[in-house]
Amino acid sequence: MDNLRIAVSGSSGLIGRALRERLMASGHAVFSVQRVNQSESASTSGAIAGGAISRDPAQGLLDPQQLSGIDCMIHLAGR
User: Fold this and answer.
1) Three state DSSP letters for 29-54
2) Which of 3, 8, 37, 61 has its C-alpha lying 20 to 30 A from 79's C-alpha?
3) Do residues 30 and 11 lie in contact, with contact meaning Cβ atoms separated by under 8 Å?
4) Cβ-contact 8, 63 below 8 angstroms
């Protein structure tokens, strides 16, 4: 199987951390989908930097272009 580019929401939780480590150990590129802090600019939403995809669920902001090239999305976020 080829290595995949996988986005994971909830990657900082108990299950998400374990899954992220396992996927990376298997050679996959893992991108954490993270909530933007209220103090951050909305213009940074969706940017991939250092393996993270930022989103603002309160404003419904997630740039679909930042998901370009992602092979799989795993949703584990609790809120």
Assistant:
1) EEEEEEECCCCCCHHHCCCECCCEEE
2) 3
3) yes
4) no
Strand-pair partners of 30 = 6
| Tokens representing residue 44 in the block | 């940074």
Q: What secondary structure letter does DSSP report for 15?
A: H
pLDDT in tens, 11-56: 989 999 999 999 999 999 999 998 876 554 444 444 343 488 888 8
Could you say which DSSP state residue 13 is in?
A: S
Q: Which two tokens stand for residue 2?
A: 């080829």
Its sign, for the CA torsion 29, 14, 62, 39, is: negative
